[in-house]
Amino acid sequence: MSRSKPPPRLYLQDEIPAHGVCLVPPPESHHVSHVLRLAAGDAVTVFDGRGNEYDATIARVARSGITLNVGEARRVDRESPLEVTLAQGISSGDRMDYTVQKAVELGIAAIQPLATERSIVRLDSERAARRVAHWQAIAVASCEQCGRNRVPQVLPVRGLTAWLGALPAAALRFTLAPGAALRLAGLERPQGAIVVLAGPEGGLTPREREDAEAAGFTPVRLGPRVLRTETAAVAALAAMQTLWGDF
Q1: 123 Cβ partners below 8 Å, 6+ apart?
Q2: At 236, which CATH number?
Q3: Residues 126 and 240 occupy one common structural domain
Q4: Tens digits of per-residue pLDDT, 103-156?
Q5: Could you tell me the CA-to-CA distances from 141 to 83, 134, 150 in Å, in that order?
Q6: Predicted local distance difference test score (pLDDT) of residue 21
Q7: Which of 90, 109, 215, 227: disulfide with 232, CB 3.0–4.6 Å?
Q8: How far, in Å, CA of 104 to CA of 138, rounded?
Q9: What is the pLDDT, as a whole number, of residue 104?
């Protein structure tokens, strides 16, 4: 006998009242009713992004939103034991979307988009804000899919040089560098936060690599093959989870 599918998961920014009623506003309600095709009486799981999830039932579907009857709150922790920030040189189109989606599935704590010399995508402040909002929405959707109850933050876009000059403390900083002498498995398990720096499609320039090393980043290779930007960060996160995390 096959198992029944778990109910769809919905992220709600507003406070969720245990044993109360809450509203799923548009456009989220449009997705629930027209994409997921849920109706009154269907079960869902809602979460607040701060570690709580709730069983809920759809009470009413309307243009103004979907009304939910909410059950008891549960603290459910599916977070990685590794506190990793991915500093990713902005890549073009679907590549960056893919990186954000998979990084969230792999337990990332935060994502720092970086404007680098070889970034194909050039963003003014307005476009950068829109892209960050887009990537944050991808992070939310990824949490809904993978079961995380805490939503990682996609930080505002920064230039690499400015970001290197204001780095937070970390137990380990490393940059992905094809041809580096050291492999990831050669690093000791860090006792604290980790920052991973990955370049865009063309990689970091020699000057950027030098600046990163001066800021305490250790160059690390991921095998003998050169990986695409959207593959490299995901491969590094999966390897870290295998070496030191919860895989």
Answers
A1: 90, 115, 131, 157
A2: 3.40.1280.10
A3: yes
A4: 999 999 999 999 999 888 788 889 999 999 999 999 999 999 999 999 999 999
A5: 20, 11, 12
A6: 95
A7: 227
A8: 9
A9: 98
